Amino acid sequence: MALSIIGAGFGRTGTDSLKTALEMLGVGKCYHMHEVMLRQDRVDNWRAIARGETPDWDMIFQGYGATVDWPAAFYWRELSAYFPDAKILLSVRDAGRWYDSMEKTIFTTLRKTKDLESLGLRLIRDKVFAGNIDDRDHVIDSYQRNIADVQATFPPERLLTYETGSGWDPICKFLDVPVPEDAYPHKNQSNEFHQKIDTLNKIREEKRD
Q: Where does the signal sequence lie (predicted)?
């Protein structure tokens, strides 16, 4: 199965909700950072990619029809070239609110990380934000520059810029599918983030044992 949808939006732009929404629309399983954290082999694969090793995209996304969130979102250029028929989904939200959410969740977690080779540090901190997650202006500039780069790269027929909170209509129109009767999902609010991370880490540790 080749990817039919590639998410190019940063984490904390409603990607967990998008994952659920896309699966509800029948695109197949959707890859997300949660998928990585559940399995050590996936963590190891992405660490190798972050070090510059050549990725096997077919192997990484085997069984998945879509991907959103980091780590894959950082590689939207490579993935869009490798899967030329895939549509690009750029999730966005107000830059200030996005930054506040990052501070409450991902950045807090990264600053506590003791594993210096963690995927969060090596990919998100060092690559996405060029090693600097403490300068608000720099972080927001990185976020806005990614949006501009994605929008400048793809034609309208291949790209949807999806504003978080817009519900089903833009996505269903973009994918040419009916609007579901069920409400659009709302997942992983900031106050749920750390509990979810703890749960995922426990599951991975149990699988190691």
A: none
Query: Are 172 and 179 spatial neighbours (Cβ–Cβ below 8 Å)?
Result: yes
Question: Which of 13, 52, 51, 55 has the alpha carbon at shortest distance from 32?
Answer: 13
Classify residue 207: in a domain, yes or no: no
| Domain membership flag for residue 143 | yes
Question: For residues 165 and 109, what is the distance between their CA atoms, to the nearest angstrom?
Answer: 25
Question: Does a structural domain hold residue 209?
Answer: no
Query: Is residue 208 situated within a structural domain?
Result: no
How many domains would you assign to the chain? 1
Hey, how many other C-beta atoms are within 10 angstroms of the C-beta on 191? 9
Domain span at residue 31 reads 5-202
Q: What is the DSSP string of 36-71?
A: HHT-HHHHHHHHHHHTTPPP-HHHHTTTEEEE-STT
